[in-house]
Amino acid sequence: MAQNISLEEFVKPENLVYKKTDLLTQKALSYCPGCGHGTAHRLIMEVIEELDAQANTIGVAPVGCSVLAYEFMNIDMLQAAHGRAPALATALKRIMPEKFIFTYQGDGDLAAIGTAETIHACNRGEHFTIIFINNGIYGMTGGQMAPTTLPGMRSSTSPYGREVSIMGNPLKITELVAQLPGTYFVSRQSVHTPANVRKAKKAIRKAFDYQALNKGVSFVEIVSNCNSGWKMTPVKANKWMEENMFPYYPLGDIKDEGVIVSKQ
Amino acid sequence: MSELKLMKGNEAFAEAVIRSGADAYFGYPITPQSEVLEYLMGEKPWERTGMVVLQAESEVAAINMCYGGASAGRRVVTSSSSPGISLKMEGISYMAGAELPLLILNVTRGGPGLGTIQPSQSDYFQATKGGGHGDYQLLVLAPSSVQEMADFAKLGFELAFKYRNPVMLLSDGIIGQMMEKVELFEQESRWTHEEVVKMSPWATTGKTPDRERNIITSLELDSGKQEIHNQKLQGKYQKMREEEVRFEQFSCEDAEYLIVAFGSAARICQKAVDIGRASGIKVGLLRPITLFPFPSKPIKDLAEKVKGILTVEMNAGQMIEDVRLAVNGSVKVEHYGRMGGIIPSPDEVVVALKKQIIGG
User: Which helix (H) or strand (E) holds B16?
Assistant: First the structure.
């Protein structure tokens, strides 16, 4: 009976069923409770651990909520100016082609200010991985409208809801980069349920495996909640995400081995 | 083996970059410096030395590629001209903040805005007073010949790594475009990965078990720590002021009047000194080679001996502020300059000297 086991007994190594990867530092995550960033960080680091690639991986952190990703990921990292991560990664990979290089970017970073760097790195077919966290909002600066904010969705700069006739349409940049000849693998995932976490990890693993083939960009979007920015409880935010974000940003592989596979 | 060639300034710079053992060039076309990228693409240094050359989608992307390459402890270089340098300023500020070595060639043209494609020196302030946001300095070298376009490429790399700081060659459309004889130094080998790891232990070359992870960032959210970082940077700039001042003097020994000019204006003023001397005016020239650190001390020393100083610049009067600070009111300092891509003639300079300094 579990209640009869002493604490000393309980923490014995043979009773260990889960351990945080050593590729995550001991630093407490700065993300809000319920946010998907922490899970996404863990999945990437687990994949790097599985590949035994700590010494061979360099990551690029963005500007946004994950600006401090380098505090949590126990690998060599760079912090890029807003939107420029793919440019940094381009140089890193070209100068050190034997390394795994990845960028970790949010929607404002990747799909607004960094659109040119994203499109051109994808179009050149650079051999690195882009992990794109899409939560439809600028989280760090306090919940402003993002390029991926849904029509009608409220934010601090669309307080009555995004009106597309005035504020433009949300950008499906993942579908857009899938059209470019330089992308080899493009997938959209989420990390809001255990089943989705497993699928997301498979996609990230595939992205890194593909990177080693030197066949172009591997790109994984993770549709995530922002319960603080959306002003919802984490549970409600996940439900809202399923009902509203997924119809607009459907999950699944969009391109595999250089071929469009999505039926969307 | 060194080699004698007739080359454009931009080409000499590009060839010298390859010979310096550079690892990567990232750039974007803009007049009057496009020959740098054209020469490199024609020369295919990836076959000669393994050097990466990439035409980026913008100046913004190019400078951020430099950020990535420099983080890996490699010798990276970019070039542009005035409007393009303005676009790069964000990235240059980040690189100064993150203490990354970089060689930048700025083949300046007249502004503001799109301005003109003709030569100008109107970006002195931008180059020497930071240029981007935040308290930082570039180490600025001002070549005045095609030979110096080559030699300063190598020197620039050395200084960039010595100080872990971006170094700018502030050239202009005359020096970039004109052809002169240049003696090219021998090819130096690129650093191996092992050499990089040893020489630049801070570089993001992959976290090995023998060291902590390396992080390249310009971000510090703790004000106390940021101030300490700022003080460290300022200490570095102070060391540059103490150790890196470079300048050249012509006919200053018995000079009664002094001209201060840099880059191509200094070439013009050398001729003006000859003309002035031929007509009996005892005039000398001081050419700052480093614009930051500025040769304040030698100018101050000369100011004690001369009756007046004329700064000659192809702008509305920018370096004159540093000259005036150096002499601190001890002698009259006036500016003569042309703008908009107009190049002053040596005779104009002599007339200006007579009118503004000798007769004024």
Answer: helix B9-19
Q: Check if A236 contacts B (Cβ < 8 Å).
A: no
pLDDT for residue A3: 62
- Count of structural domains, chain A: 1
Does one domain contain both B47 and B118?
A: yes
Q: pLDDT tens digit string along B100-151?
A: 999 999 999 999 999 999 999 999 999 999 899 999 999 999 999 999 999 9
DSSP string, B115-172: --SSB--TTHHHHHS-SSSSS---EEE---SHHHHHHHHHHHHHHHHHHTSEEEEEEE
* pLDDT-above-70 percentage for chain A: 98
Closest CA to A50 of A221, A167, A201: A201
Alpha helices in chain A, H assignment, sequence order: 7-10, 37-50, 69-72, 85-95, 107-108, 115-124, 164-167, 173-178, 194-211, 227-230, 234-240, 246-248
Q: Which residues contact A17 (CB under 8 A, 6 or more apart)?
A: none
B39 and B147 inside one domain: yes
pLDDT value of residue A161: 97
**B261: domain range?**
247-358
Q: A91 and B218 in contact by Cβ < 8 A?
A: no
- Alpha-carbon distance B224 to nearest alpha carbon in chain A (angstroms): 18
CB < 8 Å from B in window 138-197 of A: none
Counting one residue from chain A and one from chain B, the pairs whose CB atoms sit within 8 A come to 121
When divided into structural domains, chain B yields a total of: 2
This complex has an ipTM of: 0.95
Give pTM, 2 decimals: 0.96
| Chain A nearest-CA residue for B53 | A94
CA B97/CA B99 separation, integer angstroms: 5
Provide the pLDDT confidence category of residue B360 given band limits of 50, 70 and 90: low
User: In this structure, what DSSP letter does residue A243 have?
Assistant: I
Whether residue A190 lies inside any domain: the answer is yes
Mean per-residue pLDDT, B82-107: 98
Looking at residue B351, what is its pLDDT? Answer: 98
